[in-house]
Amino acid sequence: MNTPNTRAIAVVVAYNRRELLAEVLDALDAQTVRPHVIVVDNASSDGSGDLARDRAGVELIELARNTGGAGGFAAGLAIALDRHEPEWVWLMDDDTVPTPTALEELLRAADAGDVAAAGSRVVWTDGSEHPMNTPRENPFASREERLRAARLGGIAVRSTSFVSMLVRAEAAREAGLPIADYFIWNDDFEYSTRVIRGRFGLHVPASVVVHKTKALASTDADPGGRFYYEVRNKLWMFRRSASLGPLEKLVYGASSIRRWIRTFARSADRAVLRDGLRRGWHDGTRFRPRPNADALAGLGEASDAVARVEAAAARQAAAGRSAAANPGAAT
Question: Which InterPro entries has this protein been placed in (predicted)?
Fold first, then answer.
C-alpha cells in the first residue's frame, strides 16, 4: 500500500459540496505519491465535515463560520506549517479532482527546478482545457527562466490558482498566508504572485486535474453579484499588496480593465454588474483588508496557528530587512 506522509500535505477547502469532496478524497487516496490530507470545512451544512471526519487518515479542521476560500486556505496552510514539517503544501478546492499522477508530476518538476510554486494543467469534465484556469506565461521571465521551465517540461509563470497549487513550505513561511479578507476571487492571484515574486513559478502540463465546475466558463463570464469581489479585491491587490512590482501592476491592471469591459459587453444584467462595480470600487479604495489575526479570530486552533505562522513570517522579514540595511553586521 502507498502510505501517505507529511513531505507533501494536501489542503482541501470544503464548503457544501459533499459529493464532490468525496471524489476529491478518493482521488487523493489514489495518488501514486499519496499526501497527508487536511480538510478545512468552512462551516458546511451538508455533512461535508462528517464525511471528512469518517475518512481514515484525514485531518479535519472545522471552522465555526464560512471564511471563504481565502480564509480556508489561510487556515489550512497555517495548520500544515504549524503542526507538521512539510516540504510542500498542495492547495485545492473541493471541486478539484486530481488524476492519479498529478502530485507525482508536480513534485518531479518542482524538486528538479528550485520551484517556489507550481500549478497543474486543468481540464473540465469533458477533457478540454478549462478556460478559467488557463496558464499564462510570465511576460517578465528571463531567458534563463524560460529555458529552465522548458527543460522541466513546463512554462515559467507569474501566477497560478488554488485549483491545484503546489507551494514550497519554505517560500510559504517567508511570504506568509493568503489574505483571508479577500474571501473569494483573486485570493490565489495575489498569493501566488506574492510567493513567486523574486522566485520561480512553473506550470506543469504533465500534472492534470479535473475542475468540476457546473459550466465551462472563462474568467470574463458574467459573475452576477460576485463582480463586487472581483473589483474590490483587484483594487486591494493593485493598491495594497506587495505581490507585484510597479510595471507588473500596470500590465495586469490594464488586462483586468479589458476583461471587465468584455464582461459588461456579454452580460444580460448590466445593472447588477454596475452595482458590483460601484460597491467594489468604494470598498476597494476606502478600506483595506484586515490582518488575518483579526479576520480569522475566534476560530480556536486555526486562529492560533495563523497567529504563530504569521508572527514567524514577520520576524523573518524583519531579519531580512535588518541584514540588508547592515550587510557587514554578520561578518
Answer: Glyco_trans_2-like (IPR001173), Nucleotide-diphossugar_trans (IPR029044)
User: Does residue 29 sit within a domain?
Assistant: yes
The parent domain of residue 188 ranges over 7-218+300-325
User: How is residue 105 written as a grid cell?
Assistant: 508530476
- How many helices and strands, by DSSP H and E, does the chain display? 12, 9
With H, G, I as helix, E, B as strand and everything else as coil, classify residue 296. Answer: coil
In a domain, 255, yes or no: no
Q: How many CA atoms lie within 13 A of 21 on its CB side?
A: 27
Residue 176: strand, helix, or coil: coil
Coil, strand or helix at 98: strand
Strands (E), 148-194: 155-156, 163-168
Domain membership flag for residue 28 = yes
Residues 6+ apart with CB under 8 A from 269: 222, 224
Amino acid at 110: A
Residue 158 belongs to a domain: yes
DSSP 84: -
Confidence (pTM): 0.91
Distance CA 280, CA 236 (A): 10
For residue 188, the surrounding DSSP H or E stretch is helix 187-196
Interval 111-160: pLDDT, tens: 987 899 999 999 998 888 887 888 888 999 999 999 999 999 999 999 99
Please name the helix (run of DSSP H) or strand (run of DSSP E) that holds residue 208, with its range, or none: strand 201-211
Q: What is the CATH number of the domain that holds 187?
A: 3.90.550.60
